[in-house]
Amino acid sequence: MPTLPLTSSLRGYRPEWLRYDLTSGLAIAAVGLPSAIAYPALAGLPPEVGIYASIMSVLGYALLGSSRQLIVGPDAGTVTVLAAVLVCFGLSSTVENVMASAAIAAIVGLLCFAASFLRLGFIANLLSRPILTGFMTGISLSILIGQIGRLTGVKIESEGLFAPLFEIASKVAMIHWPSLALGIALFILLRLLGSWRPSIPGPLIVMALATALSYVFDYPALGIRVVGVVPSQLPSPTIPLPNVPISDLVLGAAAVLVVSFSAGIVTARSFGAKNRYPVDANRELLGFGAANLSSGMFGGFAVTASDSRTAINDLMGGKTQLAGVFSAIALALTVLFLTDALAVLPTPALGAVLASAAVGLIDLRTLRELWRISRIEFFFALISIAGALSLGVLQGVMIAIAATLLYLVMQGMMPRDALLGRIPGREGFYKLHRHPRAEPVPGAVIYLVQGSLLFFNADYVKKRIEDIFSKLAPDVTWFIFHAEAAAQIDATAAVMLDEVRALAQERGLKFAIVELHSEPLDILERSGVIAKIGPTMVFEELEEAVEKSLVDRQASGSPHSVVRSASATGPDQH
Asked: Would you tell me the crossing angle of helices 129-146 and 364-373 to the nearest 10 degrees?
């Protein structure tokens, strides 16, 4: 019977590791507490929900997670997607939203287990790095705009990027200036601490300072809003059953899963690369599943890998998942004994923490790199930003996924191709457009397609070949289709190859195909294309086909002249 990851890691536990795990756990709790209190506000949930999620998720991940270092918890992007899902449900009370968010977390956990069993870890790649960067940037701007109300004390009813700005401009007279001054001051302090002393838990310092000031100066009496009563009790296990159709819950959970796991696995892989250990996406699904199921069953919401908490764990030298367990214990003690202090925490402080987190998620460096490296990928990043801002976060998820799929299709719609020849005195074959000394094989055209042949590019490849046929030299009698790079050939492409074979035959050309992979070969055999080409015209090596063409040329008495065939007017040099 396989052992649990936590059990196997503790089996070789060294006593000297305990102090590292303990100090790391306390630091993780210190860094995580501000986000645990602030992030629920993004979804209109009470602060204790974030604390419950922070406690139970790390315990769940510690049980099944594969990484000794990764720490899970609330994440701004995940909570923003959750908020969009809850809005779609149209629930009327906070209690109903809390129940629905817990149910979504539990379903996300179950979906993670199912995805791990089916080895669907590739779902982490549904959002490519450019599109994930753009999407998270769009979410960050949305979060930033969403803090206007908390920082100014004005209720903002508009949504989107510009409408809230116009609304607050029209309500300048209603701004509570002490709240705004406090929020801006705390935001500046956060940014300065992050720049000057990144090892210091800035959000914790800011929240402690804001709480102390609130207690001393009685902020509620000054009109500055505070968090209010936070229940001084730990959650008990329940099965969340909201008044929402199960189909809606599953669809909402699927949207949360795609974003949370895509973002989370990036964090996991980043720290894995830094510390030189592999990260298996399918195994991580088990850990993420346990984290979300635990969170949902104890009144929390969906979580993912936390880059800030994991970074602190890495910085403090945490050795095992006991660091996460110690952080959960510290947060539980906070709930039991420090809720009076949390009650007077000013709302502008939460706005400052969320605004600072949003600014930190805007990855301008990656966007600049995309602009420099690939304009098309930068364009898709902009699509993701626009989707998240203009259509809303939930629709932005779909836009981001659709943009990814569109990008993949566009990459494969026009596969690169080339004509091959030989360089006198050298072995092997060379692309004619890349090597000026390369010469076509006398009497033959060797066509290489550099990509799989599928339904969406079959017509394009056929037109490329037809263009070659129209410009062939008179003495060319062989057309050799080089399929080494075609890892996949589907039924549509099989029909296309048969049509090309027929066109070649009409022009008096012998059609050969070389270096087929086993799966494409099976497809062509079952479709009858191999039988029409003829087994003797299917070669395992390009060299064999070329030698056969030269022998056939000599037997026919054709002059052994060098003709560049279609090389000068064949495939574009792309």
From this structure: 140
**Is the pTM here over 0.90, yes or no?**
no
Helices H / strands E in the chain, number of each: 24, 8
Q: Are 439 and 562 in contact (CB under 8 A)?
A: yes
pLDDT at residue 568, as a whole number: 35
The pLDDT assigned to 328 comes to 94
Rounded to whole angstroms, the Cα distance separating 300 from 78 reads 13
Nearest to 478 by CA among 505, 496, 459, 449: 505
**Tokens describing residue 70:** 């990764």
CA distance 57 to 295: 5
- In single-letter form, the type of residue at position 148 comes to I
CATH number assigned to the domain covering 415-556:
3.30.750.24
Where along the chain do its domains lie?
A: 17-228+257-408, 415-556
Residues of the chain under the 50 pLDDT cut: 1, 560-570, 573-574
pLDDT of residue 250: 95
Backbone CA torsion sign across 327, 55, 66, 301:
negative
Q: What is the pLDDT of residue 130?
A: 81
pLDDT reported for residue 127: 66
Say which amino acid occupies 227.
V
Contact partners, residue 479, CB within 8 Å, separation at least 6: 444, 445, 447, 465, 468, 469, 504, 509, 510, 511, 512
Under 8 Å between Cβ of 455 and 490: yes
Amino acid at 229: V
Task: Decide if 75 contacts 313 (C-beta within 8 A).
Answer: no
CA distance 99 to 220: 30
Kind plus residue range of the DSSP H or E element containing 512: strand 510-514
Give dist(CA 48, CA 56) in Å, integer. Answer: 12
